Amino acid sequence: MSYTQLAICAVIAAVILDLFIIKSRLTTRKVFWTSYSIIIFFQLITNWWLTSREIVMYSEEKIIGWRIASAPAEDLLFGFAMVLSVLNLWVYWGKKGVQRR
Fold this sequence. Notes:
With 101 residues, this protein is mainly alpha-helical. A two-stranded antiparallel sheet has the order 1-2. It has three helices and two strands.
């Protein structure tokens, strides 16, 4: 499976988690997209730093070939899936009282 396919699967899984499993529907809220626009800025800086110094390298056969800030475009998909999943778990555990003492 290519990096591109894994990234797309991660986004699909995160959206399913958001809309159908946890049902927090973060992707339908303006506050999520506002927060994500701030997060993506820092993700691009981090991706650029790691890939331009060859700390992290990708096999050219496994990616689509498009790069943003010297990192594969797929990194933005993985970042989105990670942020959405973590926020959904935060909402879920908050409703379950995990944060209460």
